Amino acid sequence: MFNTIVVGTDGSETAGSAVERAVALAALTGATLHVVNAYRAVSAATMGAVEGVPIDVGNANTAAAEESSRVCERAAAPAVAQGLKVATHPIAGDAPAALIHVANEVGADLIVIGNRGMSGKKRFVLGSVPNTVSHHCPCNLLIVDTTTS
Questions:
Q1: What is the rounded CA–CA span in Å between residue 149 and residue 128?
Q2: What's the pTM value of the predicted model, to 2 decimals?
Q3: Residue pair 22/33 in contact by the 8 Å Cβ criterion
Q4: Closest to 41 (Cα-Cα) out of 64, 70, 59
Q5: Residue 83 lies in a domain
Q6: CA–CA gap between residue 141 and residue 7 (Å, rounded)
Q7: Which residues contact 71 (CB under 8 A, 6 or more apart)?
């Protein structure tokens, strides 16, 4: 059924619902699970100038990459504990592009993402990440309803 599953997470509780579903599917199918977290790399221009204070862009990006790695590792921990095959992908860039890139790179059969816990009128319109991924997804896509998890 599925051999390679990619799941996106931002470390939030709602993203955790999507990760739980992806872990369950990987356990059922024996698939390799790829956990993706996208982070924003910064430049001197995006950090804004603070008069008289040097900006260390390199350290800021290193810290962002390290935090992204921690988010991936925390999300992957339940799958690792079950003995599943897991890879983590902290990636600089926006989330939809990161998910699509990893899915293409690993030959994914499925991408799993959350719908971001929207309610009210917004429940009829996908969030920006699921919406973008749904239009460019190179494989099957499961959008988990995180409002019921």
A1: 20
A2: 0.86
A3: yes
A4: 64
A5: yes
A6: 10
A7: 9, 10, 11, 37, 90
> Which 8-state DSSP code applies to residue 123?
G
CA-closest candidate to residue 29, choices 61, 64, 55, 3:
3
Give the number of domains in the chain. Answer: 1
Q: Residue 85 and residue 69: Cα distance in Å, rounded?
A: 17
With H, G, I as helix, E, B as strand and everything else as coil, classify residue 114: strand
Give the domain CATH number at 84.
Answer: 3.40.50.620
pLDDT tens string 59-70: 888 999 999 999
Tokens representing 134 are: 């749904």
Sequence letter at residue 85 = K
| Domain span including residue 11 | 4-144
Alpha-carbon radius of gyration of the chain: 16
